[in-house]
Amino acid sequence: MKPRAITGLGVASALGTGAYETLGGLADAARADAPRPAVASFDASAYGDPPIVEVPGFDPTKHLGDKGLRTLDRLTKLLVVAARLSLHDAGLKKDGQWAALAPERVGVCCSNAYGSLEAITELDRVAVLEDARYINPAKFPNTVSNSASGYVSIWEDLRALNVSVSDGNCGALDAIACADIFLETGRAEAILTGGGESMSEALFLAFDKLRVLGSNGAGARLGEGAAFHVLEPLERARARGAKVLATVTGYGTAFIAPKDEVTLLFASSEALERAIAAALADAGVTAKDVDLVVSGISGIARFDDEERAAIAQAVGAEVAVAAPKQVFGETLGAGGALAMSAALAWLDGAAPSCLVSGSAPSEVDTVLVTAVGYYGNASAVVMRRA
Amino acid sequence: MRVFITGVGVVSSIGLGKEAFFASLAAGKSGITPVEAFDASNLGRSNAGEVKAFRARDHLTAAEARRMGRCSQMALAAARMAIADAALPDGALSGPRASVVLGTTMGEADVLEDLDHAWIAKGLPGVRRAWIPKYGSTLLPIHVARALGAEGAVLTLPAACAAGNYAVGLASDLIRAGKADVIVTGAAEMLQELQFSGFVRLAAMAPAKCQPFDLNRQGLILGEGAGVLILESEAHAVRRDARVLAEVGGHGMTCDAYHITRPHPEAAGSIGAMRQAIERSGLEPGAIDFVNAHGTGTKHNDSAESKVMREVFGERRVPISSMKSMLGHCMGAASALEAIGCLMTLETGIYPPTIGYETPDPECDVDVVANEAREGKADVVLNNSLAFGGYNSVTCLARPGKLPPPKVTAA
User: Fold this and answer.
1) Is the ipTM of this complex over 0.90?
2) In CATH, what is the architecture of B3-239?
3) Model-wide pTM > 0.90
4) d(Cα B293, Cα B306) in Å, to the nearest integer?
């Protein structure tokens, strides 16, 4: 792909809300082991000390004011806050007003995997235990998968396209591919690209029941968060005098199905190897150029093992591999976006943390970001220092 | 690079397969009947375009049917019909140059309903672990790619009621950009109780029938189904000497950024999307012969859409019709099914009727194809769609050879 500039970042993650809070926190990997505050997004009193990482003290009113938030779900608030921060970071908005480009020329590509789960389970409960006639119509739109992404456009007045992507763990990287093609075809001049996922009781229970959660590397900690990166064509970003945080220069994806008829949850190192090869070729770099791999390794062994094997095969056994999900938790549809945010910090000179293999490179110019889906797909993105 | 449609598959309330679907559309046959999938008696509404004739095992193996929800089952069935229609040989879809891009609103809604109901009724121990991974809209293209052997991108675009158009649009962009040779695209949606109740609670559902553009229209009627299209690059289609059903022209995508469920009353976004579709096809508005309306039958939608027609086409009254009068609103699947309906128009010159049209509405001053199919020029048509979230999308479809040569892509 042509180099796409990242000109702005907005993040709400386990390390806090804001662009630089998140990046600063990453350098201090010890914070991942800090005691967790009590679960805030649902009543977890029946579940002991669940392996959950939330966005701490998330207070959307600080960023959005206190009007109009009542019927919005948690995912929507996380995404709108991240969007607002990214627009200001990119200089497209200043104090809430447009400062560069026009609303008709700014779009959204947003990944999410299970965002409507919270609303659907809540309304199902009302319908079953009371009566379907009592479900709150103001909350009904939240049952539709793209509603959170739609609210981002509404709150921030982004009138070029809005495209939601749902591809599990690969979604936020796949959103890059969509944004790239929409920039290439002139459908927008800047696209907020990223994703979000929010904690809910149903999501926690589903993962808990699948026996994939745990702490200290034995199982994933379930996370939440949202991140948007403002993507622009590099020359145009430079022409408008925007600061360029890094460039995105390559993308690849592949899908390989299980051979038997029964398996559903599945990963193969081969799919990620292909995705990595495609991404490196797309970026015009080789495996030797990769200084750091920012992986999706989360603590779920059967997926992590395939991801490690693919990285070793396609990039090399010696390469430094970071696993920011140690800090962020498994954030599903937001995962690739938070990994890219972490990569920004490391491209910017912060010492890489969360390393699971290799030794920290002295300088990071080229990062490979990887993601492995739960059903056989895998994606990869190449980022470079600006 | 031109993008061709070489095969289509349909699961709908008015027919399974292209031939049955086309025949029903031309005849103005309604698929709207009392719902059997759930008890809607206390909601005061009971009709929907429910697909009663679909049996998964007619199209899927037992193992396939077991691992999927109804939405994916319909998607895969339609995909298999589309492959047969395209006469794609075995193996043509295997490998990294074949992708699957599908749209939906809620995806595997029955799987989640089962999970939720078990949790509510029996508590957590009542939830079967093996069901959990069956939920997620991610799964639609995964299931289809797995069954067909495709190993390129697998993408779900949850673009609500415009999802079919979004999928076809992105798929055509991917092929034009050289990212794939063949893409299985379209959308699927299943009728489900919570979604039905939600539309009743939004006061958006008509009592019995859907009457787009009628003065006395009372809202939408829900529907379900799947529409799948095989998109091929010109080079790929020529190489295998494929029969070309239609060419995908340009498409437009905008966002109202106005309201989560209602279209913008001035319809600026929708107007912009339609103009983009025309301009990106290298055409002027005068080249458009017919518009398939989003036409949900709600007050807001149909008047906004009429405004779009007047703004884009001026004095010229381009015939417009809404298949939702027959199919109901199939949500994510709607614009995919309607894209396939547009192919009938391109192939036969028959504009499908808007049935149940009784009283003209001055707010909807458009040339509705009322009650009976009409014959007319059909070289280039537009497929219009709007969606929750303020999403607008318009796709241009044309008879082969009727679009100007594609321009070199501008950055």
Assistant:
1) yes
2) 3-Layer(aba) Sandwich (3.40)
3) yes
4) 9
